[in-house]
Amino acid sequence: MTNKKLNRTSEHRKALLKNMLNSLIKYEQIKTTLPKAKFLKPQADKIITLGKSDNLHTTKKLVSKLQDIKSANKVKKTLSKRYEKRNGGYTRIIKAGFRYGDNAPMAIIEFIDRDVEAKKLDKKKKELTKEADKKVASA
C-alpha cells in the first residue's frame, strides 16, 4: 500500500480503495478527486498485472482483493488480454478542474485504450426501468 492516508481510518481507506477499484474495472473510467486518483493508480496497475498470470493462486488473490467475482473475471478475461503486450502503465489520470462547493481538485482516472461502451453500463438499466414505470403508470 502507499503511504497516503486520505484523512481516513485504515478500514475506511481499504474499503474506499476496493470500491474505487471495482468501479474503475466495471466502468473503465471514473471521476474522483486528484489525491484519490493518485492513490488508486498504482493499485489498479497491480491488479491488472496480477490478472495477467493465469493460475488459481492469482485468481484467488484477485477475488480476495476485489471482493467481487464479476470484477475479477473481467480483469482475467478482458483487461489482461487487452494489455498482454503492455508492461505497466495501464491507467492514466486526467485533471478535470475543481469541484463546485469545496473547490477540490478533480481528476478522471481511466484505462488506456478503454472500452467506451463500458461507461454506459448502468444507463441502459435506468432507461429500461423508466420505460417500465411509464407502462405501469399508464395501465
Describe this protein's structure:
The protein is α+β, with helices and mostly antiparallel strands and 139 residues long. It has a single domain, classed as Ribosomal protein L17 (50s Ribosomal Protein L17, Chain: A). It is built from five helices and three strands.
Write the layout of secondary structure elements.
Blueprint: H1 10-27, E1 29-33, H2 34-52, H3 56-66, H4 69-82, E2 91-98, E3 105-111, H5 121-138
Antiparallel strand pairs: 1-3, 2-3
Quick tags:
alpha+beta; 50s Ribosomal Protein L17, Chain: A; three-stranded antiparallel sheet; 58% helix
Shape category: globular
CATH architecture assignment: Alpha-Beta Complex
Cα-atom radius of gyration: 17 Å
Q: Tell how many strands the DSSP assignment holds.
A: 3
> Averaging pLDDT over every residue, what do you get?
88
Number of domains: 1
Which runs of at least 5 residues are low in confidence (pLDDT < 50)?
A: none
Report the structural category. Answer: alpha+beta
Question: Approximately how much helix is present in the residues?
Answer: 55-70%
CATH homologous superfamily placement:
Ribosomal protein L17
Q: CATH topology, which one?
A: 50s Ribosomal Protein L17, Chain: A
